[in-house]
Each structure stands twice: as structure tokens, then as C-alpha cells.
């Protein structure tokens, strides 16, 4: 239970291959890449470690596991040394109470749980607490029949059905709608993912400053690719914190990609040509300005994020200034929890 399947391995291999081909013509990593250029971190579960390594096998130009150092993150939130946050825990408890109330009020769901428990010969409360959607999804995605048991003293026997799965899945979709309406989860997500987003912002700013200063890369290369291999309970709050509230609950092998882009330096003749074509008014980016792009499962969602949905989309380059992301992470995101900093948000009464 809880191990990565061969189907999961193939999904991550394909993810890696997709991104390898997407960045190949940008020469992101040379064939003789150095350990310094690739950063990988994973939670302590074997499936996240294996998922990350399968991805790198497909992604890296010449995979060599002896060159990969895996940093262990003990928390699924990848919060490092900044995990202590009482307010985040309170928001999570409030969100769990909301989920429980919604499930209890769903009479169709309760009837389905009773039927399933009778079939399997377990107590209804045990089945309800186990939240069987994960197990049933695994069966469905691997084209396996749902669990069956013979009739006996404690069970009616038979098989779980697709109709029962559909009821549980519909409740999950209803929960996502109610979650957005109430808004408590977004507050939890902001505090849960701030440490990870802040670390990401700091890395990007460091690269941007080095680029701006025209500093030469180190002999063994700078870090150019970071991989964080986590869980659905990592991905879901990250999506919410970014303001991607309409994104569905993460499927197996889901991925979020943050890209950094730099506008090319224009020559005097190019600037004149743009002005002659009337293009200057379309884009106000400066030479060498750094931008960010966000993709979810390959779809560009940059202009759906909280930090860039109001930004005028460039016609020639659909990118968002990196400074928008930095300001959001360090200041703007805390307005949702009526605070001005992570520390204030976590400890205020």
C-alpha cells in the first residue's frame, strides 16, 4: 500500500521527457551537467523519491543517479525550518470541520457508505474515516475491478460498484465548490505554502540579480533546475495559495512548473523597427527584464494567478514580470489573512 506502481513510473518518465523536449532548444542543461546545476528535494515516502528519480531519468540529458543529491523534507508542505505556525493549524482544523459537516449533510453519501460497509463487512464509521476515494481511484486508474469479498458472518459479500464511486467522487467535487465559497482553505493554503514560495522567490531573485549584474557563471555551473517531489496535499494548497482556485484537485503525476524568462536586449535598429510598426505601445518591458511563467499540467496559467491576473498581457510575450511574484509572496498574499508578514499572520490572536 502506498507504493509507486509501474503506471506511476511511466507517467513521471513521460513528464520528464515532455519537459526535456520543451527546454531542449533553450540549452537549459548541457549533457555533462554538474551536480550543482540540479537541486532535488523529496518527502520521506519512497513513492515521492521514486517519482522524482523517474522524472529526472526522462528529463536530464544524460541521467546519472550518482550525481543527484536528494534533500529530505520531513513535511509535505516543504516548509523546512519555518513550519511552526499556530494560525495555519487553526485554519486547517476549521477547514476539516467544514468538510465533515458537508459530508454528514449529504444523505446520499451516507447511504452509499452504509452499503459499502455492509458489502465489505466493516463498520460504517471505519469506512467513512478511511475516505475510500484514494483506494477506488487507484483501482480505476489501473483498470482494476473494485474490491470484492465473499459473503460471511460480518459481510453481505459482493463487489463495490462504479455507482458508489460516482457518489463519492461527486461529493469531492461538491466539496471543492463549497471550499472556494467559504474561503477558509485559502487562508490555510497561504500560510502552509509561504515558506516554500518564499524559498522559490529568493532563488529566482538571486538568479535575476546575478543576470542583471552580468556576473559570469561559476566553473561548475549555477543551479538552473529545481525539483520538489511531493503529494496531492502539497500541490492542492500551492494551487490555492497562487490563486488558482478553479484548478481541479491534483490528479496522479500532476505538475506545477515555474519558469524564469529574460527579455532579449534590443539593438537600436530593432527599437526603431518596432516603433515604425507601432509595436512600442504593446509592450513596455525593459531590455533584460526578468519574467515568470507558471504552468499547471502543461497549461499556461500565469494570467490566472493572484499576482498576475490583472497584469496587461503582452501581445508579443505572454509573460508576467518577476517583481509581481516577489511582491505577492513578500507582502500582498498576507492581506488575505489580515496581516503584513508571515510571523504576524501565524502568531496574532
From TrEMBL:
Q: Does the keyword Ligase apply?
A: no
Q: Which InterPro entries match?
A: His_Pase_clade-2 (IPR000560), His_PPase_superfam (IPR029033), Histidine_acid_phosphatase (IPR050645)
The catalysed reaction is: 3-O-[beta-D-GlcA-(1->3)-beta-D-Gal-(1->3)-beta-D-Gal-(1->4)-beta-D-2-O-P-Xyl]-L-seryl-[protein] + H2O = 3-O-(beta-D-GlcA-(1->3)-beta-D-Gal-(1->3)-beta-D-Gal-(1->4)-beta-D-Xyl)-L-seryl-[protein] + phosphate
PANTHER family given in the database record:
2-PHOSPHOXYLOSE PHOSPHATASE 1, ACID PHOSPHATASE-RELATED
Q: Which domain of life is it from?
A: Eukaryota
Name the family the entry cites: Belongs to the histidine acid phosphatase family.
Instruction: Please state what the protein is called.
Output: 2-phosphoxylose phosphatase 1
Q: Which UniProt keywords apply?
A: Hydrolase
